[in-house]
Amino acid sequence: MMKNPLDFSGKVALVTGAAAGMGLATAQLFAEAGATVVLADFKEDAIKEVAEKLVAAGHKALAMRCDVSDDAQVAALVDRTVSEFGRVDAAFNNAGVMARIAPTAESTREEWERVIGINLRGVWSCMKHELRQMERQGSGAIVNNASVGALTGNPGIGSYIASKHGVIGLTRTAALEYAKKGIRVNAVNPGLIDTQIGHDVFKGDENVYAEAARSVPLGRAGRPEEIASVVLWLCSPGASYVIGHGLTVDDGMTVV
User: b/e string for 80-99 if b means 16 or more Cβ within 10 A?
Assistant: First the structure.
């Protein structure tokens, strides 16, 4: 009989974009499940504060500033994790940004580079260094944060949509490459979640955001914790036969 699959005692979990939203909720849930958690974000003060609270509550946590668009910083993040704790058992590659809204022909090269650099190249960089360590260990689980935007188009945010489609392609490819090495790679496709990026899609117009939230079957936006619980399951032995999958968690947004 399988023990509690959501018990991460003795495991080390790495979460990027951990200062707020889905990353923060996932880091907290990993800690509550017994994992040692490494929190990464470019907002250094914010993640240090979170890590301090987790440690004060009796958990093991380390905060480290990291801009995932910088491969050297990502390499240093994984190296520090391994030097401190010996391994990386689970990773949630969550760091991401929303595109500045503009039709494709009016978007800029600088904006494209910014969004792709964080959302897509950043995920690739994280995966590269995590996979190298997990291959040495012979085990591990990675979850990449994509989006329902990986499944559809959305006018005005072409670079964001392209980046998320790319994340799914990377996820599927790496999953096939590393499955026989004891490493599972999956993704999660959140729908409308109550995070800053979720609000940014609507240019900060809270009335439009509220209307969008009411339009989904449950009539509300998702909570970051509802994504965190899915990420933990995907990283757990309970999902041992789930490989290369983009699990959509969107309250049926893409069904209707």
Answer: ebbeebebbbbbbbbbbbbb
